[in-house]
C-alpha cells in the first residue's frame, strides 16, 4: 500500500460486530440457553472453525450453503512454496457452515473417548458465503444441541427437543411461539403411496419446504416441472394442508394410511410422530406451544425422521427461530456404522438482529456496572477504592471514577451507561464513615453508613 492511501476500515459485508449493549444482550441470552441445555445434561464442546473441505462436503453442499474456502496468503518470497505445496483434495480446508457436520467428524475422531448416547451443546460461530441482507449474515453464532447414539436412539430424545425450546423461549420472554413438528418418513411415505418415484422424492421434499416462501401455486408449478403430474401435485398440496389439533391430525393420518397403497413407511412415520407427541406431553409442554405441521420438511438432506421449526406468532415473517431434526446416517458416513442423532439449532445472531428490529427485545445497558463511586476529591481515593472493593465482594458490579470532574458530569456519565446508583463520599461523610447513595432513576438520595452500604444497594436493586 502506498503511503497516504486511505484504508477502508468498515466491517466486511455480512460480518457483524456488536456495541457493548448488544454484546451484553448476546451474553445474557447465551447464559439462558446454556443453563437450559445443561439442565438436560448436555455437555459443552468446541470444534475447529476450519475443517477439511471433504468433511464439510461429506453429505453434499447442504441446502443453499456456500462454503468459504481457506486459501493462505503468503508473502511474495514464499509464493513458490505455496505453489509447490498445492493444497488440494484432503488438504483443502474451509470454514464450517454449521455445527452438525463438524460434530459428526468430532465423534469419529473421539469415538473411543466419548460415552454414548453423547449429548453435547455448542455455541460456536459459523460461516456461510450467502448474499448478505437484512437479518442474514455470513458470520453468525449458532447454539446447537445434539444427542448421538450407537445403533439405536430412543424417540424420547426427540420429545425432549420441544421441551428445551419451550423453556428457552419462555425464559427469554419473547411472546407467543409455536413449535411445528413433522416426520420426514410421513412425507416420504406419502409420496411413495401416491406413486412418486424414489428419485423424485428428494426434490419434492425440497419444494414442499418452500411453501411458506413461494406459496401454493408456485409449489404446484415447481412440482410439475419435476415431472409430477397435476393430480399428484394436488394430492401433495391437500396432504400438507391437513390441519387441526394434534390428535385430529394424527387421526386423519391414520385414516389416510388405511386407504392408500404401500404405506409401510408412512405408517412408521405416523407411529414415530405419535410417540414423540406423547413424550412432549409427558414432559409438560403446554398444548398451545406445539402442533403437527405436515408442510415442515427441513431442506437439509441428512434429516430422516422428526423435524422441527419454531415460529414467533404475530411475527411469522421472521421465519423459523429454532429448527432441527433427527438424522440416521450423518455420523456413519465417517465410520461406516449406524449412529442416529437428533438435534436443534438456534441461529442466535440472526435471532437477536430480528428481535431487536421488531422491538421484541431491547439491548442491555452499555456496562454491567450497577454502582459508580464518584470522585469528590483526590485525597479520598484510598477510601473510594476500599468502598468499591467492599461492594464488589458483596457481589455488586462497580465502576470507580478515577477522573476528577464536576459532580453533575459524573452523574451524567453514570446515567448514560445505564448505571442506577452513585455513591457520594466527601470529607464529612468519610470522617463519619457514611455515604450518600443517589438513585439516578428516581432522583432519591439517602444517607447510608458505609458498613450498611452493600446491603442497602442490594435491597434497592431487587
Write up what this structure looks like.
The chain has about 450 residues and is α+β, with helices and mostly antiparallel strands. The chain has 18 helices and 17 strands. The two termini are about 55 Å apart.
The shape, in one word, is elongated
Helical percentage: 40-55%
Unreliable stretches: none
Structure class: alpha+beta
**Average of per-residue pLDDT values:** 91
Strand segment tally: 17
Summarize the helices and strands and which ones pair or pack.
Layout (H helix, E strand, L loop, with lengths): L19 H20 L3 E2 L5 E3 H4 L12 E2 L8 H7 L7 E3 L4 H10 L8 E5 L2 E3 L11 E10 L7 H17 L4 E7 H10 L4 H11 L2 H4 L1 H10 L4 H11 L5 H13 L5 H19 L7 E3 L10 E10 L7 E8 L4 H4 L5 E7 H10 L13 E3 L7 H13 L4 E3 L6 H10 L4 E4 L2 H5 L2 E6 L5 E5 L3 H9 L1
Parallel strand pairs: 1-5, 8-9, 13-14, 13-15
Antiparallel strand pairs: 2-4, 3-4, 5-7, 6-7, 7-12, 8-10, 10-11, 11-12, 15-16, 16-17
Helix pairs in contact: 1-5, 5-12, 6-7, 6-12, 9-10, 11-12
Keywords:
single chain, 462 residues, alpha+beta, 9-stranded mixed β-sheet, 5-stranded mixed β-sheet, 18 helices
